[in-house]
Design a protein that fits this description.
- There is one protein chain.
- It contains twelve helices and no strands.
- It has 227 residues and is mainly alpha-helical.
- The longest helix is centred in the middle third of the chain and has 22 residues, at 101-122.
- It is globular.
């Protein structure tokens, strides 16, 4: 990473945030979903399916978990109702910060494959061929549960982000562990800029998560990579 490039992008990002129209272009709905998750998620709840459903809500869009040919929430609700103990264990492992993040993500996908197999056996006429829990969805769970540690992952954006900030090593495959490490580093730079943080906070109304959140890094990455 090149510090001069990062600072140049931060300056451009501040100009973008200062424009009143920027609010319409940002994915601020994610801060709302983050707050909803924080308010509702309790892994020890008596009915985890109901808790999970309440934890993934949004007043404006469901695109994170429900769009064409992509339905991770629908499938996880089915899993939580069919095999609640295994689904509980999957989330328990994913959110165990004592274990390496790469192992936890891989184990969560493995557990989802196991749940999908059980679902097919129980409902042979249901033609679902995916649990839809890719790195993007799993990283949203992590970002909502631990706002200050994780940011959502998008496979096609991460290489563009690395190129934009001057990284010489651009992966040609998914690298979610490196994504999390780079995100934490970038958040340090963003948080140090008081003007940037004030511009950002001005757009967060009461329904949005107000604490430290690496969702800001995703927003920054979208701005510089997608432009």
């Amino acid at each position: 990473m090149q510090l001069k490039l990062i600072q140049a992008h931060i300056d451009r990002y501040k100009t973008f945030l200062a424009d009143p129209k920027s609010e319409e272009q940002r994915a601020l709905h994610k801060w709302e979903s983050q707050q909803v998750w924080q308010d509702n998620w309790e892994i020890e709840s008596q009915d985890l399916a109901i808790t999970y459903d309440q934890s993934l809500q949004n007043s404006t869009t469901r695109r994170i978990w429900n769009r064409e040919n992509y339905a991770p929430k629908k499938m996880m609700l089915a899993f939580l109702r069919q095999l609640p103990h295994l689904a509980f264990f999957a989330f328990q492992e994913l959110f165990n910060e004592d274990k390496p993040i790469g192992m936890r993500v891989d184990r969560f996908q493995y557990n989802c494959e196991t749940l999908l197999t059980a679902h097919r056996d129980a409902f042979p006429h249901d033609y679902e061929n995916s649990h839809y829990h890719d790195y993007a969805m799993i990283s949203h769970y992590l970002a909502f549960q631990f706002p200050e540690f994780y940011t959502p992952y998008q496979a096609d954006r991460f290489p563009k982000l690395l190129a934009a900030i001057g990284s010489r090593d651009i992966p040609n495959h998914d690298d979610i562990e490196r994504h999390f490490k780079v995100s934490k580093t970038l958040y340090i730079f963003l948080k140090k800029d008081q003007e940037l943080m004030e511009l950002h906070q001005q757009q967060l109304t009461n329904q949005y998560y107000q604490g430290d959140s690496l969702l800001l890094v995703e927003d920054f990455a979208r701005f510089i990579a997608d432009k």
